[in-house]
Amino acid sequence: MQRRSLGAVIGGGWSGLWQKAKTGARGAAVENRFVQAFVAKRWTFLLVVMGFLLGRAMILEQLSPFALAFIAVIYFTRRDILHYVGVAAFAGSLLSLHANTGYLVTEIIVFLLIQKALEKFERSDLSLAPILVFSSTFLVQLFAELVVSNLSWYTLMMITVEALLSLVLTLIFIQAIPVFTLTRKNYHLKHEEIICLIILLASVMTGTVSWVIGPVTVEHVLSRYLILLFALVGGAPFGASVGVITGLILSLANSNAVYQMSLLAFSGMLAGLLKEGNRLAVAFGMLLGSSILSFYMGTSVDVMNSAWESLAAVTLFLLTPRSLILTLAKYVPGTQENLKSQQDYAKRVRDVTASRVEQFSEVFRQLSRSFKQLTTDDAVSRKEEEVGHFMNAVAQKACDSCWKKSQCWDQKFYQTYTYMTDMMTNIETKENMTKKQIPPEWKKVCNKPEQVLDVMKQQYSLYKNDLHWKKQIMDSRHLVADQLSGVSQVMEDLAKEIKREGQELFLQEEQIRNALEELGLSIHTIDIISLDEGNIEIEIIHQYTKGFDECRKIIAPLLSEIIGENVAVMREEMHERGEGYSTVVFGSAKEYEVETGVAGAAKGGDLFSGDSFSTVELGNGKYAVALSDGMGNGERARAESQTALSILQQLLQSGMDEKLAIKSLNSVLMLRSSDEMYATVDMALIDMYNANTTFMKIGSTPSFIKRGNEVIAISANNLPVGILSEIDVDLVSIPLQSGDILVMMTDGIYDAPGHAVNKEMWMKRMIHEIDTTYPQEFADCLLERIFRHHHGEIQDDMTVVVARVEKRQPEWATFRWPGITRMERPKTVS
């Protein structure tokens, strides 16, 4: 199952085209299975060929550590083709320069026996493969030397060396073979894994030692072909690395080819330097490098042979399909293809995540609709049904034992029903209706008017109680519906945010990179997360120079000029690896700044105050200044007020509407405890881009705005949260100005002058008389005046929060750099 799905990834282009061409679902499935099977068979054939060459490969003319290591890894990764690979390795060992077939077969048998024993005890694991290979090689080789009585310190050393090489090669093959067995789940290899892959390919090439076609040596052709591929894909570093590794392994296999290491390394470096050209440029670089060293090291015959080998490698290189090079490039870190594959993968993840979030949003929206399905007609029909049930209950208890029942309800049903309805209406208006208040016409008609009145009053009490609880249930249903709708809206906004982050902003990133590099700044990566107006977010990783603040003094002003909006440094973080890089996040600079101050005291000088406050930036461009007064005093009241502020803050930070957040907070506080606990909430949401402020006052005292010599009071008539199941939330919106001072207080301060004084006028005068504009000094001064007014006695919990709104002045002005144009922002995803 895993092999087929990942095979489709490697053959993604071909498989995708075929699936789109098919109209029927069955035809697409059959076609997809065919493509997956073809890709799997192609890689299977390659692994079998590699097994054959590794079975023939030898180093130092007597060591063959490759085959068993390869077979051991195949046993754990592709056991279905183990017998094919084993037969191929056996055939390769028969064609080896030095016969080692018996050793190889014996080592494989010992390995399989040990492995089966481990499987029986459920101890089998891929991590044990290197130890098993080492043990099998060492035991077989040691036993063979003991049999022929030829054991010496030298032979023991060579046995140990071969066993250790087998162990190391097993570790290397574990990293490299999954590329061919289709068990990797994404196109990303570490540099270490790339090196392991190169060692594997170079080891396979040692199986072609002594293969000659005319003047051309196959191992030299393949090694230069491998250099050309990696030089084209990874540039000079990879070209030189492949040359060194391949030359080293080939020189171990053939001592006469030691010079190949320097020749291949130099050729790979020159070929990689010309990577920016095309295939012909890379081929020219390899031909030039191999020719120079061939002239220097070899005879005229060696020079000609090397030229023919290089031309053969170039021919194979030019005939290589582009799809193979692109596939290889996806695995090499740092290449455009690798970056694109990672970006495509991230985009697919974002799209899938956004789709799932939208589905959940729709689920919550449907649930909200299901709770709101009670229409007005349904309510009217239920009302009539409840009235009918009420009449039946009264008639059953009062009229069943009356001898005039048939006369009243059978012969004069309409008249009796009308009188009963009128009677119920009178009871609704006068719940304590007495027998003397019974209408005379009812006494003429009914034989038991007093008994009917008692039964009707009793049933009406039950009916009224049922109506109360049904109303509670309906209110709860509407609240749950509103909350589900709010959650749905939050998730929909999240899905839009995820989609918006998936926009391609490569051109804008390149424009910023070019501008910064022209200033001489070392920029590693630029990632634009958002370019929405007022919500800019750009992440830059750059070379950090100790002692210079390039981010705030150069980069941020330049970004402000390019984007056309004030940009500031949000946060800066040094990399822990100590490579001299730091990650800096730039965001939209707020147009206004808020400075706060708080002063408070507990009743009677106690340690715990029932008041709580919060001043926090919500993250959506709004700054919240909140104050809550719990019922009573002490630790319990403080816990209640802190809970109210914490829940409200989290709901607002999630993106929920203000009114819905207050209603949700109210329902939560009502359900938390059966005791009579409530808390006031006084919150000001200040928009830091335009200073528009929304006041949410739930049972709180008035707030005041000091603007120059004027003091403005803001009040609202709402009950505290946690008392009633349904509350009306009145939001007051007022635009603040630069220099305004906002004063919020609990009732302990507002009620300080007593009941005989106009509290609002008294507080306005107190605020007007305070000269300082610093929020903390303002709060301390106001609290001190309240203390003096009460002669140092603290009669209730007192807390005052003061906030001052100021127009933000950028620390550094923007500047224009020659050749830089204003950036075009992409359209926002709707």
Walk me through this protein's architecture.
It holds the Pfam family SpoIIE. This is Stage II sporulation protein E. It is an enzyme of class 3 (hydrolase). The structure is a single chain. The chain is an alpha+beta fold. Helices cover 59% and strands 13% of the residues. The protein has 29 helices and 16 strands. The strands form four sheets. Strands 7-16-15-12-13 form a five-stranded antiparallel β-sheet. Strands 8-9-10-11-14 form a five-stranded antiparallel β-sheet. Strand 3 and strand 4 form a beta hairpin. Helix 4 packs parallel to helix 6, helix 12 packs antiparallel against helix 13 and helix 13 runs antiparallel to helix 14. It is elongated and about 135 Å long. It starts with a helix and ends in a 23-residue tail after the last strand. The N terminus is likely disordered.
